[in-house]
Amino acid sequence: MPKLASPAATSQGLPLHAHLQGNLAQSPSDTLVLVGGLHLASPSADPRTAPGRLLVLDARTLAPMTHVDLDPHFGGVGRVHWCSRTNQVVAATASGACVVLYSDEHSDKGVKLCVGRAGASKRKTQWVDEELEQVLLERAGAELEIAAQRMAKGKGKKGNALVQVHGGKISKRQLAAIRGDVVPAKRVAERGKLAAQSEGGGAIFFAQSDTHSKPPMDRDVDPREAILKYAEVAAKDPYWITPAYKATQPEQVLADKVVEEDEAERVIAKEDKQKVLRRRDF
Q: What GO cellular-component annotations does this UniProt entry give (predicted)?
């Protein structure tokens, strides 16, 4: 039977933070106990500025076994948690930061998934000595000096590569622009000289090359003559309608009146209606 009236073990004099709510965290094997506290260098040290410390105690006797000191800017340690699945320790500090302690050999996943990621790459600079700097400035000529003056006055465009070398440091893009080693783009070279001469050049090259693929248009031919030409061909060599009615209607029966306007059509319809009424009267 457990003794609820008296504790199994006690520990006194632990350097705990007075303004933080602390707790105990047991290890997955129930042999160790973690407690968050402070690292007081002397009895007169200020607890508010003291660095944090994780105390590792024996689970049976609560005797201090070891400790882990944190960075001073984190402050004291309040609550702690020992995750059994990832085998990592999470500690909440007085500064509001969350500190995760792990082992490269025994921890699994968790914070290790983001620790191995590489940070954002920084822009590399190339060191240029004084002699090479002088050669570059002479080769750049007056255009470089004018661009440097504009950049100094704040009138130059942002991101302009023609800037003066300060402090002997220059980027690769600026170095290539100052050298003047103009290398045409591969896509422009493949499209031909026409694309390289113009600004952009892709649309102009396509428009001029596309005209050769289109069939010639008969703009100079009279449309009346073209229609009559096809009419003569249809009369001499009928293909669709005339052969179909050759046996039943050898001679074509065409309308006597040709209606080209709506008003004339209404007049003809009125005359036909009057003829029908006259026949009824007879």
A: nucleus; site of double-strand break
Please check whether residues 48 and 94 belong to one and the same domain.
yes
Is residue 166 within 8 Å of 128, Cβ to Cβ? no
Which range of residues forms the domain containing residue 36? 24-106
Characterize 136-164 residue by residue with b for buried, 16 or more Cβ atoms within 10 angstroms of its Cβ, and e for exposed.
beeebeeebeebbeebeeeebeeeeebbb
Distance of CA 149 to the CA centre of its chain: 36
User: What pTM was computed for the model?
Assistant: 0.39
pLDDT in tens, 130-186: 666 666 666 655 555 666 666 566 544 444 444 444 444 556 676 666 665 555 555
Residue 208, judged by CB atoms within 10 A of its CB (0-12, 13-18, 19+), counts as: exposed
Q: Are residues 29 and 82 in the same domain?
A: yes
**Cβ contact 62:84 at 8 Å:** no
Residues 93 and 28 in one domain: yes
Residue 16: phi and psi, rounded to 5, are -100, 160
